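Sequence, structure tokens reproduced for reference:
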Amino acid sequence: MTKRHDTSVTPFLMFTGKAEEAMEFYVSLFAGARIEEIQRWGAGEPGAEGSVKIATFSLNGQQVMCTDSPPVHDFTFTPSFSFYVSCVEEDELDGYCSALSAEGKFLMPPDNYGFSTKFAWVEDRFGVSWQLNLP
């Protein structure tokens, strides 16, 4: 196998009807975040017409791809994959905690767990996991 330096690696999130809502929510949280491209399922295609076939958005320079999968699978998101957000100020971490935990849940509520000043692990309303850290 040839190892290439120009091969890209991008996180990919699979939703079943909530991809656009999730992207809009995520880009609303981070300064400079944006939805870069959305391709939609058309009439007669496997996905619900108008839903996200494939999309790309960026969060603080990190590209993320997502889709609305036509079939519902026996699996969903797991906390073993998460977005790790290193915060600069405590009020930033608290704001992310508040927004991401709304209709979601804390896996580890905000606290000092000994490895940082303040840390929280949140599963948002879409089932995506976020680790929020204040070093």
Observations:
- Residues 46 and 70 are 6 Å apart (CA to CA).
